[in-house]
Design goal:
single chain; alpha+beta; 6-stranded mixed β-sheet; two-stranded antiparallel ribbon; about 30% strand; globular
Length: about 210
């Protein structure tokens, strides 16, 4: 019940005809790249492509427990699908580790699909991808690997390298931070300092 200006009591039994729209408050979390511990090193991999399939490229960064860069690499892959580019970025990184006689490696990707494919040993994929996955499994037998999934915000360094490579940039090896492209260098410095990136969660919309 409520009282109108005329002093008469009115009823609110009639439902509102206009639906109410509710918005939740946007949430944000901090995502950090975490350093490996003990005798482990970490290899982060990522890819980028303009279309699926489209012009693609891959990046990988290898760092030690002190957050120091051991090497970084960018590769252009030509016309590929997203998943093939992701898998090739991983196998190229592992091949380079083998050539450099490195082992005890945490391989980290922000592709949940690739992570699941590698850790589940699934055969339900295209023959091109299956061939690359088999090569990854073969390399894992000699390199002592552990696989990890990371959110994209914690993988910005290799994401930047992959994006540059997908624009038909030449293949390039980097052995120190100063040689990295400027945007990638900035992300690397933040990772080394332990500073995270902001991850925004999309607000949910509801109608009642």
């Amino acid at each position: 019940m409520w009282t109108s200006r005329s002093g008469k009591e009115q009823s609110l039994k009639t439902p509102l005809k206009t639906p109410l729209t509710f918005f939740s408050i946007e949430k944000a979390t901090i995502v950090r790249w975490t350093r490996p511990t003990g005798h482990w090193k970490k290899l982060n991999v990522d890819s980028s492509s303009w279309g699926n399939p489209g012009a693609g490229g891959g990046g990988r960064v290898y760092r030690n427990e002190a957050r120091n860069l051991i090497f970084a690499f960018q590769n252009s892959y030509g016309h590929v699908t997203n998943m093939v580019a992701e898998a090739r970025a991983m196998i190229d990184g592992l091949t380079l580790c083998k050539d450099m006689r490195l082992s005890s490696i945490i391989v980290e990707t922000d592709s949940r699909t690739l992570f699941d494919a590698v850790t589940s040993h699934s055969n339900s994929c295209s023959w091109r991808l299956w061939y690359v996955l088999e090569s990854i499994h073969h390399l894992s037998q000699s390199l002592n690997l552990s696989f990890s999934h990371i959110l994209r915000e914690g993988n910005f360094v290799v994401d930047g390298l992959a994006h540059i490579a997908s624009n038909s940039a030449p293949n390039k090896l980097f052995l120190n931070i100063a040689d990295l492209p400027r945007p990638v260098r900035g992300s690397m410095i933040l990772d080394k300092a332990g500073v995270g990136q902001i991850r925004h969660c999309r607000p949910k919309k509801g109608i009642s």
